[in-house]
Each structure stands twice: as C-alpha cells, then as structure tokens.
Amino acid sequence: MTELLLAVQPLTEQESTILINQGIEIVTPELVTYEQLKNVTISYGWSPELGNRILAESDNQLRWVQYQGAGVDLLPLAAFAERQILVTNASGVKAPQIAQTVVSYLMHFARGLHVYQEQHLWHEYEDQYTLDELPTVIFGTGKIGQKIASYLSPYGMPIYGVNSSGKQVPGFDKVFALNDLLSVWPEGIQVIINTLPDTPATHHYFNSQNHKIWGELFLLVNVGRGGTVDEKELIASLQSGRIRYAALDVTEVEPVPADSMLWQQRNLILTQHTSWANHTYPERRSGDVFRILSTNLSAYLNHEPLIENVVDLTKGY
C-alpha cells in the first residue's frame, strides 16, 4: 500500500526529499482532496478540522499521527485507540528552552527581580534567596523534568522527583510515586515545578486538598498542562500567602480572558505558553519533530514497534 503523508506541519525541501526517497507520497492541507483524505496513512502534525474529517470516514487508512506538541490531551485518543492508530509526540523537543524558562522563574522571584521591576525610587530589597535554600520537587521525571533537574543541580539545591511509579531516575535526589505523597513528602520543600500531562489522574491535582500535603510554598511553577492546576484555589492560595509566588506558562483557558483574576495577582507571572520559544525557530515547529518522525519511519514501514516518543493511548502520555 502506498503511504500518503498529510503534512500539517510544513516540511523543508530536504525533509520532503527524505520522505519521497523512502516511497512516501506527500500532500499538504491546502491541496488535499476528499479522496486523498480517506487514504492518508500518516499525519505529520494534527489538524482538528482535517483530522476529524479523516476519522469520520469509516474506511479511512490513517495509521500513525506524529503530533507536533508534547501534551496530547487535545487529541481524540479514544478514537485513535479504537482504530489502533499509533501516536508519537514531540516530548523533549523543547526541553532546553522550557528548562531555561523555569530557571528564570526561580531567579526572578528568588533574587527579588519582581520587586525591582516595579520600583521607581531607591529602596533596597534584601529578602532574597540563593537557590540552594529552596528545596524543589519536580512533578514529572520525563525529558522536560530531567532537563530542568540538570539545569538546577549545579546550584546545590535538593531536587526531588514525582512520577506515576516512584521509579528512581538519574538526576534526582529521590523520586516518589504520585499516589503515595502523603506518607513520604520530604520536609522543607519550597518550590514545586509541574510538568505533568492533563489526564484523569492529574486533572486539578494541584488543589487545596493536596496543598495541605506540601504546606506553604515559596513558588509554584506550571509548565505542564493548564488543567492540572485548580486556578481558583491557586488564586486563593496566592492571596492568603500559602503560596508566595506562582509562574504559569500554561492555563486552563488559552488565551487567558482579559477579565480573568489571574491577571490581577501581583505575585503571579504569566508567560502565555511561550516557554518553548526560541528566536531561531519563531514557530513551534522544529527540525527535531521531523527527526522523531524519521527515527520511527523505518520501523513503521517494516511493521515493527515504533522506537521513540510513543504515546500510551490509555494513559494519555
């Protein structure tokens, strides 16, 4: 069967040549016909409009989606699972950029830059911290969590991890299981960094009930998915002082509405889902996404298990 790839994500001339040389036919969203949509076998990137049209055809040939993002909660995973459609994501592609943004959040608040940003008269602000004074827990020990840990470790701060199993991961002082934090939560934690996906197990996980486990915090960071944080309760915690500062790159509703209370919290910074950004790649697309596709392509063509960034459709990540 001829493999037909729908290039939702733009391909460079070199990338197109690589695919053509392996017998892949390419069609773009602006030129794809109705008959071609039914015969698309690979979607490079995902278009909700075109993707739903493909899935609506009972005899569609879609077999593999290489998604352009890391979080896949917006994809129709149940439909993919029912039709045994493979999904690979872009997890890790933007890890360095995201990790450096997280370091900047910590520096911003720990070194008092948020205070000096607004001051227009000389007034010394000395309530500043060095990072080794801020023991940190990173929720999610995947590629992004590991990159964050590697960037923070040289500062001498204790760094713990949380994942679904409690399996130990290099780069963390210790890793705990998500469902066992009540009995093992380390003392003195000042910073929580969330990189978790939004799944039934993690939706609104960061809420007032779980805040009781970790007590008062210096900083809560979310670079995972917006739905993992109960924003109403976050605002209440910021106003009461239970959480001193917060940095959100992701929110439940994007763009954040102009009348949202999130904008009104002076101890909260919103970076508006741009922690991935790099001026060299002004769009979300990066050649590394194609590298993941290319790495898996040989296995796919040989009807073998895919190698890299395969999404577990039942877990949602």
Automatic annotation (TrEMBL):
<protein>
    <submittedName>
        <fullName>4-phosphoerythronate dehydrogenase</fullName>
        <ecNumber>1.1.1.290</ecNumber>
    </submittedName>
</protein>
<keyword id="KW-0520">NAD</keyword>
<dbReference type="InterPro" id="IPR036291">
    <property type="entry name" value="NAD(P)-bd_dom_sf"/>
</dbReference>
<dbReference type="Pfam" id="PF00389">
    <property type="entry name" value="2-Hacid_dh"/>
</dbReference>
<dbReference type="GO" id="GO:0033711">
    <property type="term" value="F:4-phosphoerythronate dehydrogenase activity"/>
</dbReference>
<keyword id="KW-0560">Oxidoreductase</keyword>
<dbReference type="InterPro" id="IPR006139">
    <property type="entry name" value="D-isomer_2_OHA_DH_cat_dom"/>
</dbReference>
<feature type="domain" description="D-isomer specific 2-hydroxyacid dehydrogenase NAD-binding">
    <location>
        <begin position="106"/>
        <end position="274"/>
    </location>
</feature>
<dbReference type="InterPro" id="IPR006140">
    <property type="entry name" value="D-isomer_DH_NAD-bd"/>
</dbReference>
<feature type="domain" description="D-isomer specific 2-hydroxyacid dehydrogenase catalytic">
    <location>
        <begin position="29"/>
        <end position="309"/>
    </location>
</feature>
<dbReference type="Pfam" id="PF02826">
    <property type="entry name" value="2-Hacid_dh_C"/>
</dbReference>
<comment type="similarity">
    <text>Belongs to the D-isomer specific 2-hydroxyacid dehydrogenase family.</text>
</comment>
<dbReference type="GO" id="GO:0051287">
    <property type="term" value="F:NAD binding"/>
</dbReference>
